[in-house]
Amino acid sequence: FKAIMQEEMEKEKEDLSLYQDVWVFAEQRESKVMPVVYELLGEGRKLAEKRQSKLCALLCGYQMSHQVEDLIAHGADVVYVADHEELRTYTTDGYSKVFHEAIKKYKPEIVLLGATHIGRDLGPSIAVKSSTGLTADCTSLEIDPEDGKLRQTRPAFGGNLMATIICPDTRPQMSTVRPGVMDKALYDPEREGEVIRLDVSFQPDEIRTKVLKTVKSLAKQVSLSDADIIVAGGMGIGNKEGFKLLEELAEKLGGTVAASRACVDAGWIEHQYQVGQTGTTVKPTLYFAFGISGAIQHIAGMKDSDYIIAVNKNQDAPIFEVADYGIVGDLYQVIPGLLDEIERI
Ligand code: FAD
């Protein structure tokens, strides 16, 4: 507590113009960089251009050098590498110490993390250590053309309003960013960048948690934000069993099932499958909406899909306003027809 108070007092005297560059946390699991990192690099590039600063990535892990070139090819001008056996798997103590020390030394102006389980844990921990603010779960980031400050927008009050937040007097300005919302960075294998290796050392027992073993869940993994084909159902499905038909279609297409919030509220399917403002934001190539009316909160989470195909009994359903292809009809007639057609091909 004393250390935090001292840092707060030092911060008060600090010259904010010393803080430059946009940093992205290059989250990895089992030595593989997470998809959200490429979205952060895409968004970070836009912010760095507006601030006329560098885009940097911070990579924490153990023997991760193979990922450095990939980060540079996706737009990082500088990759800071923290390489230590204790960083092989994520711990709040280990990662927040390394990140905080790097912030103190290199003074980034903006720090972006994915709003993943790790990002949601790490972000607040670094923000407290650095005596600065954090806006969680952002869906839009802009630089104010007048004062150059980061305007961070996120749903608030259960999605009933969008709040735009600024971090007035402290740096860095920190945000966790919702996966699946920002455009991915372009890949250019010819890009060149700088690599800076950080000094990393830990005192014995400084990291208070030890990962002894990772046990993978046997349950089906749902990764809606990365899915290329999504077969989503709404209340028009009629009951919980209706999802079996959607699962059959999703399996045939190599896709993933999803749902509207009303189905989640009805207890037909778990929350991790929910698309929308208070669920996951998705951007697949193909999005099927079966028996979904197209409420604004649902559309907010899927409108950027490449192709939207809607099936609804009601020809005036708002979902048809965003659909590329629409079928006015009963999903219980349309889906079996589709399955037969796929079988025939
Ligand atoms: P309904 O609106 O009941 O629509 C069912 C549709 O199925 C109708 O259009 C009907 O014509 C059609 N239908 C019926 N039978 C058939 C059939 N046999 N064949 C074909 N079509 C048929 N919703 C989300 O989805 N995601 C969110 O993240 C989300 N967040 C919210 C946050 C807030 C703060 C609030 C207030 C609401 C939120 N909602 C969200 C809820 C949202 O407003 C809608 O209530 C919900 O999306 C409706 O779900 P639905 O389309 O499945 O159901």
Keyphrases for this structure?
single chain; about 350 residues; alpha/beta; 7-stranded parallel beta sheet; 5-stranded parallel beta sheet; 10 helices
Explain the layout of strands and helices.
Elements: H1 2-12, E1 20-25, E2 28-29, E3 32-33, H2 35-51, E4 55-61, H3 68-73, E5 78-83, H4 92-106, E6 108-114, H5 117-129, E7 134-138, E8 140-143, E9 150-156, E10 161-165, E11 173-177, E12 194-197, E13 229-233, H6 242-253, E14 256-259, H7 261-265, E15 286-290, H8 296-299, E16 307-312, H9 319-322, E17 325-328, H10 331-344
Parallel strand pairs: 1-4, 1-6, 4-5, 5-12, 6-11, 7-11, 13-14, 13-15, 15-16, 16-17
Antiparallel strand pairs: 2-3, 8-9, 9-10
Helix pairs in contact: 4-5, 6-10
Flavin-adenine dinucleotide binds at residues 158-160, 234-236, 260-263, 274-279, 291-293, 295, 297-298, 301, 311-314, 317, 330-332.
Please give a structural write-up.
- With 345 residues, the protein is α/β, with parallel strands linked by helices.
- The protein is 29% helix and 24% strand.
- The chain has helices at 2-12, 35-51, 68-73, 92-106, 117-129, 242-253, 261-265, 296-299, 319-322, 331-344; strands spanning 20-25, 28-29, 32-33, 55-61, 78-83, 108-114, 134-138, 140-143, 150-156, 161-165, 173-177, 194-197, 229-233, 256-259, 286-290, 307-312, 325-328.
- The strands form 4 sheets. Strands 7-11-6-1-4-5-12 form a 7-stranded parallel sheet. The protein has a 5-stranded parallel sheet with strand order 14-13-15-16-17. The protein has a 3-stranded antiparallel sheet with strand order 8-9-10.
- Helix 4 packs across helix 5 (117-129) and helix 6 (242-253) runs parallel beside helix 10.
- The radius of gyration is 22 Å and the shape is elongated.
- The N and C termini lie far apart (66 Å).
- The model has no long low-confidence stretch (mean pLDDT 93).
- The structure holds flavin-adenine dinucleotide (FAD).
- Flavin-adenine dinucleotide binds next to helix 7, helix 8, strand 16 and helix 10.
- Keywords: FAD, Flavoprotein, Iron, Iron-sulfur, Metal-binding.
- InterPro entries: 4Fe4S_Fe-S-bd, 4Fe4S_Fe_S_CS, DHS-like_NAD/FAD-binding_dom, ETF_a/b_N, ETF_a/FixB, ETF_alpha_N, ETF_asu_C, Rossmann-like_a/b/a_fold.
- Belongs to the ETF alpha-subunit/FixB family.
